[in-house]
């Protein structure tokens, strides 16, 4: 008989979960509201700490960004951004607010984790990452997913925190090769990860593959490689595939060959709880396969998948590192700032930067529409209403469909009246 996700459970830290993780989607695309709903339903939801001062300002009306911008206003015209440092105490405050308030609101049997990207180097990679990790643990987060980097120094940064052995810790890797050095370091601190997310080339966000070779990889072959590697080393750590798991049955196929849960994201981008603006969610629904591009415009150096209609592509916006500056490396450099300065020297009337994007500004404005490869199938997960729009989904509808679906079937939500659905959404 065919099985559904609900026939399985993920065991982590002595608890059992519905084996569905909703991945971190920065900047505040995976909102606290979305993560909390997933936890209520018995799964694991992620918030993300990408640009956490900005996120805190939006959520709690704090003034972290304004304060930083004011302090460094004198530097706006300068091409050198090295002086623009984050105040570590303020950063900790923002992280404790974002994570802490979310944890206080948690209900249900599931969990809320935070996604921490190493590539958010913030002009002081070591100290800012340490502050984010420690403050998240202070704020009682249940789990930390280390992402966008090898995290070879992250255990050292966390080791003295009283919750180091109690918080659940996981890492996202795209190969067994990337996992090896992390596990070596982890063994040194006698703190192996509690779970390993294996992200394939069809995921949204940044990809852990090269721009020229990502198409040669397949999650279905990478996951067994990681499982074998763990077996050979007698390590019993849950493995969680991610990237292109579009139906519950896709997940079951992985469970039957040794995986313990799946991490998904794209299907939740068109839920009411997702942080994307309503009109952007409609672009996701309307996307066709030929609209999807993988490019290198992210200044992080990682390839990224997005819709080619993203308004942030090719924009020549002035870098706003005095307010943001999340991609500045430890010398105060960012590939976008360099590309922008190059264009500026040409003295054009209107600057356009075709090869890089200002990730901070454009993610804050939701104008880089990153997505998983199967974004073009979202239209098959709901109704097209008489007014031509797609009916928005609730996180519960998507979660339940993953949880109970069999044989790749997708259960559509109950159909709403065409006009009232948009009116009620506008009023919400
Ligand atoms: C809109 C969007 C934003 C994302 N942002 C991040 C992020 O900030 N950090 C991260 O580690 N992964 C990010 N991801 C990857 C997801 O967490 C997840 O692992 C992956 O997209 C799962 O594949 P799926 O989208 O095909 O379900 C993002 C994915 C999407 C769709």
TrEMBL record:
InterPro entries: Aldolase_TIM, NMO
Coiled coil ranges: none
CDD domains from the UniProt entry: NPD_like
Claim: Oxidoreductase is one of the keywords in the record: yes
Pfam families: NMO (PF03060)
Record keywords: Dioxygenase, Flavoprotein, FMN, Oxidoreductase
Protein name per its UniProtKB record: Putative 2-nitropropane dioxygenase
GO molecular function, one term: dioxygenase activity
